[in-house]
Amino acid sequence: MQKLYFEPAWDRTIAPADREKMMTLFQQQTKQLDSGVHFSFLWNARNYKDEQLITVLIHNCEETPLRLHNTAIAYYEQGKQLANAKFSLPFEIAGNTSMPWTFIFSKANETTDDPQFMIGI
């Protein structure tokens, strides 16, 4: 059974309305997911450096932990790729676990590698 996990820094700082949105999306999405790894878009923003911040729920629907290390992830809007960058998470995501994360797409981590995962809206 899939469980929702908040990394400790998120757990301490997330706004109640954002937590509720994540919990609702988690409950809706996990009914439709089978095996594999899936990214559910939550929201996007731009920071003062004009970097694209994409917040998602990462669903690891596998039994084994998920480690993202130097992994190419693409961001799409309406079928058009807007960004493609490499990311490493500082931890593993346990099997059968979903958690929120914000990916920061910047010039520094852009790549032309084929993406292993895609985030789309």
Keywords, please?
121 residues; alpha/beta; 3-stranded mixed sheet; 2 helices
Verbal overview:
With 121 residues, the protein is α/β, with parallel strands linked by helices. It has a single domain, classed as Immunoglobulin-like (Sandwich), CATH 2.60.40. Helix content is 17%, strand content 40%. It has two helices and seven strands, in the order E-H-H-E-E-E-E-E-E. Strand 2 and strand 3 form a beta hairpin. The longest helix is centred in the N-terminal third of the chain and has 15 residues. It comes from Sporosarcina soli. This is SLAP domain-containing protein.
Work out the count of structural domains: 1
DSSP helical segment count: 2
N-to-C order of helices and strands:
EHHEEEEEE
Overall structural class, as computed from helix and strand content, comes to: alpha/beta
What is the β-strand count?
A: 7
Low-confidence stretches: none
Sheet of most strands? 4 strands, mixed
The spatial strand order of the largest sheet comes to: 1-6-3-2
Q: What is the CA-atom radius of gyration, in angstroms?
A: 14 Å
Give average pLDDT, whole number.
93
Helix proportion range: 10-25%
Strand residues, percent: 35-45%
Q: Do you know the CATH architecture?
A: Sandwich
Rounded to the nearest angstrom, the distance between the terminal CA atoms is: 26 Å
